[in-house]
Specification:
- It is a single chain.
- The protein is α+β, with helices and mostly antiparallel strands.
- The chain has two domains: 270 residues, no CATH class; 117 residues, 2-Layer Sandwich (Alpha-Beta Plaits).
- 29% of the residues lie in helices and 26% in strands.
- It has 13 helices and 19 strands.
- Strands 11-12-8-7-1-2-3-6-4-19 form a ten-stranded mixed β-sheet, with helices on both faces. Strands 5, 14, 15, 16, 17 and 18 form a six-stranded antiparallel β-sheet that branches.
- Strand 9 and strand 10 form a beta hairpin.
- Helix 6 packs across helix 7.
- The chain is globular and about 70 Å long.
- The two termini are 35 Å apart.
- The mean pLDDT is 95.
């Protein structure tokens, strides 16, 4: 049975820049997926694009292509990525320019667009699509003027279309993370749109791959058992047409692939075990069967799926005021008491100046006292030092700015042992809030467009 080798070289924008290069050069590979988009990443790209119309995509991706394009062409390895962000055409132009500079011909780059619905929000809301928040049910309409980005999650179908047009590199905006692995399987194995069990298998393979080394020993509970984590190998799925696959990594790399490491990644963002919803299929995680096939090899089988839903998820972001945060290191005897006093001093000095914050908009943490895991370390002896972190949020820029002026004075006008203040006064930053919603899939899919250009 034909085996298709699909790897993932990036789990987020900011992941190890050497990982996809090592994935390409470390062993046999057919497809490399690269996932750059977290929920708020598109709002960051929007700000970049507003400043410069040629930006709005993951520039790290172009740097990767520059280093490996001759190898990709020679070996026929195809790369799929959501690096296109909010400007996939500009990203493609940058890649085609790299090909020209390197004297390469026959490089075909596909673009998938149609996920960005930000310019259509008024039209959609006017047509009765309220885009209600999935968490509290509120309609988006009253906040529509503050929206900085709005993108629907596309599935694998347009990525498959780009592959069928011969694209060696496919650039997308907001597609599901799992589509980057599922699309090659559909393309290579000829799976149909209603092969629900097979589509679920490809989706779960993509889910295991999507966070890179989180399934090969990264972020693993028994971290001390993982060899050479500094050189962790990024994951490779060896997929077969019957929907079974093996999770592994290149030989000679660090990390660990076991039933436990794969199981922990399966639990990531899973939700209801029998109802993992994507644009392509509803996958049933409760049917997954894992088996250790050998060293750093885990077999996956038995996966079942159900028909997809009539909706697509929309990930929107909007401007929700300002925030600022600062830290101080507090040392010496009674460090915790001194940190609490510092926080109280800042609060009272702000109040004297007429600046107050609602309870939910003021945050104080004393790092070193178990603030990340409340109650777990209550019996820890008095620490010799702690870190005080103060943060505020408000729609009033001036209030947030004034907060930033009250931390430095603690060095001389607070208790002894206050140090570690660096980087200047905390400056107000824009708060970008997340808005998840559902939209009838036909409202998105009829606007999806795929194009392939060649140099």
């Amino acid at each position: 049975m034909k085996t298709l080798r699909i790897g993932n070289g990036q789990g987020f924008w900011g992941d190890n820049v050497d990982a996809p290069i090592r994935l390409l050069r470390g062993g046999e590979i057919d497809y490399i997926g690269m996932d750059y988009l977290a929920e708020v990443t598109l709002s960051i790209m929007m700000r970049q694009k507003l400043k410069d119309p040629t930006k709005g995509y993951a520039t790290d991706f172009v740097d990767f292509i520059r280093q490996v394009l001759p190898e990709l062409k020679e070996r026929g390895v195809r790369v799929l990525s959501n690096a296109g962000g909010l400007n996939p055409h500009a990203c493609r132009a940058a890649i085609l320019q790299v090909a020209k500079e390197q004297g390469l011909e026959g490089i075909r780059v596909g673009v998938v667009e149609g996920d960005d619905i930000s310019s259509r929000l008024g039209e959609l809301i006017g047509a009765g699509h309220e885009l209600r928040n999935m968490e509290d049910g509120a309609p988006l309409g009253p906040l529509v003027e503050k929206v900085s980005s709005a993108n629907a999650y596309l599935g694998a179908a347009p990525v498959v279309e780009a592959l069928e047009q011969g694209a060696q590199i496919v650039l997308c905006g907001r597609v599901t993370d799992t589509a980057l692995a599922l699309a090659p399987m559909i393309h290579e194995f000829g799976w149909k749109a209603d092969d629900w069990d097979l589509l679920a298998a490809g989706t779960i393979a993509g889910h295991i791959l999507e966070c890179g080394p989180q399934c090969t020993g990264g972020n693993f509970t028994r971290w001390w058992e993982v060899p050479d984590l500094w050189d962790v190998g990024y994951p490779v799925v060896e997929a077969r047409a019957d929907g079974t696959f093996t999770v592994t990594k290149h030989a000679g790399t660090g990390g660990l692939v076991t039933v436990d490491t794969v199981s922990e990644q399966l639990l990531y963002e899973m939700g209801q075990p029998d109802e993992y919803i994507t644009p392509d299929v509803v996958a049933d995680f409760s049917t997954v069967q894992l088996q250790q096939e050998g060293e750093d090899r885990v077999g996956v089988s038995g996966i079942k799926g159900r028909p997809n839903t009539p909706f697509l998820k929309v990930s929107a972001s909007y401007l929700a005021g300002f925030k600022a945060a600062g830290t101080l290191t507090i040392t010496g005897p009674r460090a915790i008491d001194k940190a609490r006093l510092c926080a109280d001093i800042v609060r009272q000095r702000l109040a004297r100046a007429g600046v107050t914050f609602d309870e939910g908009d003021w945050e104080e943490e004393i790092v070193g006292t178990g603030c990340c895991l409340p109650g777990v370390f209550d019996e820890v002896p008095e620490p010799p030092e702690v870190v005080l972190r103060l943060a505020v949020r408000d729609t009033d820029y001036g209030k947030v700015e004034r907060f930033g002026k009250e931390l430095a004075p603690l060095v001389t006008a607070g208790p002894p042992g206050v140090t570690g203040f660096a980087g200047g006064r905390p400056k107000p930053q824009t708060v970008v809030a997340y808005w998840p919603a559902l939209l009838a899939r036909e409202e998105v899919e009829q606007h999806v467009h795929v194009s392939v250009e060649e140099v």
